[in-house]
Amino acid sequence: MTTPRTVYDGELRVHYCQFDVVSGTEDHVDFGGRTGQRNGLCIATTPGALFLVTGLHTGTVGLTVELHDTSPPIEDHWEEVVEVSFRPVSSRLAVVPWGDGALCETRLDVRDHRVRYCALGMDEARERESEILEGDLTVDRYLLQFWPAPPAPDGVIRQTSASAAYWHGLTAGN
Length: 174
Prior knowledge:
Layout: E1 5-14, E2 18-23, E3 42-43, E4 49-53, E5 59-67, E6 80-86, E7 92-97, E8 104-107, E9 113-120, H1 122-127, H2 129-134, E10 141-148, E11 155-158, H3 162-169
Parallel strand pairs: 5-10
Antiparallel strand pairs: 1-5, 2-4, 2-7, 3-4, 6-9, 6-11, 7-8, 9-10
């Protein structure tokens, strides 16, 4: 079993249901769309960058980022689970909220990786958004895991929410 190195475990401010992971010197990249993707939650169509979707449109979500040596087991409590291949363009890796600078940074070898993005509470966050904005409430939570692995097609491992189904549907036919 792999022992993770936790890079970040805390809150993330989101706007427009999104945040990014970037490598290199830039904190923002232009995404080329969803062409070739099966999942709609973790878009990996731009080299060295990931575009990630949340259930909450605007507010605070929980986020944990982990680095692993090998593929970690998938925990049963996650409602949504997707995986993509990712190769950073430099060893700098940053989680970047929309319209802001890096929330956290780490080093990641410039080689092929697999990324697992897990979500919990996407539908509830959409339903309770006004309540979340008014108070100090975190409803949806996300886990982002990286480990070295050869390239493979992206995939939806688990999908239970209407929110995830909507985002996955945007990639259908691409």
